[in-house]
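Model: You mentioned two targets. I'll fold them one after the other.
Researcher: Yes, keep them separate.
Model: Target one:
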Amino acid sequence: MKIKSQQIVLAVSSLLASMFSSCAPRSSAPQSVNELDAYIAKEIQAAQYPGFSVAIVVNGKMVWSKGYGVTNLQTRAPVTADTPFMIASVSKVVTGTALMQLVEAGKLDLDADINTYLPFKIQNPRVHGKITLRHLATHTSGLIDNQKTLAASYSAGDSSVTLEEFLKSYFTPTGSRYDAKLNFATSKPGEQFEYSNIAIGLAAYLLERQTGGNFDAYTNQHIFKPLGMNNTHWFLRDFKDVSSIAFPYDSEYPDLTHYGYPTYPDGQLRSSANDMATFLAVMMNGGTLNDTQILDTKTLAAMLEPQFPDAPKDQPQGLFWTFKKGGLIGHAGGDPGAGSYLYWNPDTHIDAVVMLNTAITEKNSSGVANILKTILRDPTTVGLFR
């Protein structure tokens, strides 16, 4: 199963730019939560999303969540706020949180040469320069996505290729996936922003090397279980009932099924709106929720500091987080049959998690764009949850 993943990533980025650049409120905003519910349902129906889930967090507390549509067009099982969806690149903020836990514990250094931690050496053959975790976390490492190779790595079900195997074959000159021109940029580390899934996969591998265990097991022990995120897993095999997961639908891939890939920490997480709202609430509360601390407040603040301001890019970049026009902070995700958004508005302290089981395209983008604008931008909607 081959996937043209970059096309979806670019589509999501383009749509987000237009989505968040317009701050004008709607002419007739919902005047109650029931009206907001009806408005969202209408937008979903018009956009023809099979399934959709949303959660709203205000002042670090989830105040409302709901599912719409169906998880599967054949079974017609209804979506709830506990339905797991593939959240694509929103996974990166979870991956980043795990990595920053190790930074906080002194087990990883943001500015150390990554080769300090690796069993094989990575050297950009086109330019010289020390590559660090900070570069990986901000898409400025010069290690880039070879789209053909990444697309070929998608497979039905969980991938049989391990993260370590894939990375070694991709970055070492004798590896079967090595390409000196397509796997590496001509810019030195820190000079140029180029969105890189492979860099986030590599960052997660650094955690494996420092902990001696698998990345998925680490996040389960140190993030998901402590927070009660029971509907969140990286692999299909970890779900008791795979049929409970929202099935991916994509007109470009009519034979699409649940899938996976070796660099899973960059986008393969499946989670529910309620679970990700819990994760978002932790971030809003400075790294702690209900006496459970995931990150120190100072560590979280460091993640939200703009990095490499001189590196050309379309928006400021934090450590694993992005900043959008109008002050929104968060991340978006897009993959075949999957779209997800996790954003908060620091000015209003209202935050949203949205996920759907179809890819966002120019034809169907208005629905999710309008819903996010209404939740995050409209002052009337903000007032509903005060």
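Model: Target two:
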Amino acid sequence: MSKKGKILVAMSGGIDSTVAAIMLHEQGYEVIGITMKTWDYASSGGSKKETGCCSLDSINDAREVSVRMGFHHFIVDIREEFGDFVINNFVDEYLAGRTPNPCVLCNTHIKWSALLKRADALDCEFIATGHYAMVNELNHRKFITKSKDMAKDQSYVLWGLTQECLQRSIFPIGEMTKPEVRQLAYNMGYESLSKKAESYEICFVPDNDYRGFLKRRVPELEHNLVGGNFVDPEGNILGKHSGYPFYTIGQRKGLGMAFGSPKFVVEIIPHTNTVVLGDINDLVRNGMQVSKLNLMKYEHLPQNLETVTQIRYNDAGSLSVLNMNGTDTVDVEFLSNVKGVAPGQSAVFYEGDDVVGGGIIMSSSLSELMNNTN
């Protein structure tokens, strides 16, 4: 029996989760590796070779390391629960004119749930992943803190983790940089792993063509929504588009028309199949509403709390003031105007490097002006 107890480690086959598992093994934990099969690439209709965390090669890589290090490894098929929740939400959000972030939902509602369930079954006290983040504690509450490597920090996609999840979660590489992780893998004798490329694709859209995925998933989209109007912010018709779900806030390229000056998608109105185009300044917002909240650092949000709010992954963040509006919505006032607020994306609130909490962006200030556009 290990002095530090049993820990279940999510192993994708990539360098980060592999190094995390090896580190914990060498620290004296009784490591059990688990690889989760979330998606069957063949059913996606993509045109490229299978890659990423669900590929057979990645699963084999994870198993090979486990055998070499002498700890148990399991493969768990969670495709059904993943598809029912994450993929259906992905499609539904685009049909609602919003831009979803499936990786957040997968982490907080699928992967951690699956990990905790298996950890309990295997009598593991802790779970671990290869995320670049750290867990801290204040007033008996756990919260995520940004990793040492700001270029790789993944705190943004972990805002939805509950206190139950955080109490049992360990991120072994959170205090390391990516070059340090690669060097450690090399020093441990995993030369090929140390040079392994990373995948930034959504696992079920491996060719990065989300429009093609939507068309394959909902074939009638391509026929029923073609011919909606592009309009300007005043409602003047500028041309026809190929269906509102195929556009995202801030998009400039791929509009299918030339306008003489750069135009950006500034609003999507599903019920009239309308896409509003404007100039770069039309993307500016001075605030937003965020719902489906998960608070980490505080049990209750302090009034007029000043934070840095990040509205997309790799966003630098903007100074803002937060105030609750009801029980599950927060009003966010930006202290300087922000461009490209996209309903459906995650908003994450930071105090320094600490995650206060996060939620889903719901507001869109042009909607009321355009409700009667046809």
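Researcher: Noted. Anything on target two?
Model: The CA atoms of residues 5 and 29 lie 6 Å apart.
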